[in-house]
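Table S2 (continued). Query chain:
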Amino acid sequence: MDYKKILLAEFIGTFILVFTGTGAVVFDSMSNGAITHIGISLIFGLVVMVIVYALGDISGAHINPAVTIGFAISGEFPAKRIAPYIISQCLGATAASFSLLALFGNHNEMGSTIPVTIEGYRFTYESLVLEVILTFILMFVILNVAVKSPDKKIMAGLIIGAIIAVESGFAGPISGASMNPARSLGPAIASGNFTDFWIYIVGTVSGAALAVPAWKYIRPNKKQSGRPNRNRPRNRAPQNPQRQKNQQWKKRTQNQQS
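Corresponding output:
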């Protein structure tokens, strides 16, 4: 397939993710909480599921720079394509955020991911560790259902969307549950709020990278081919009856001569 079309698929996929996901955050703020936090979490999970099924066979539907880097570390994605993929994803996310900004103005920092502040204390480093763990879980699940698992691949979109909804549901109120640098970048640029933005780069990429050795360690080893099973009886082809008679006659003749 044309490489430009693959990159366009990543652009469109990330645009859809950020437009619908952070759009839910914006609309929830505009409607005084009509969507609710759980509703926002489900929207993020469902839209990822849809994108995986819609674009997975075109670009792999990474729609996440951390996932792209994780696939490259695992050896399942060529390193030379990392930069073009990430650029396409970040452009898609930024375009989505500016579309929302142009249509509805700046509400709730355009859905930016910012660590929670409680009693004057911002949970920056706690959110950093949380983003590492969340992205580790996400990448670990993706690798186990999408790579060399044909029996699971048909359910990959559903499983990946489910884990994103779960993580967004329980961790969103603390760190924003980004798990995706592009998802955090678009709203940050559109709103101009880069508060602790660095943790959504460092934390997500670190989590995806750490998931790779864990996945490689636990996945089943391939059976070595080309070696006969010693416990299995060997099937020997029956010899020709005429040949057996000739061999018996030769042995009898040799015995008589001796």
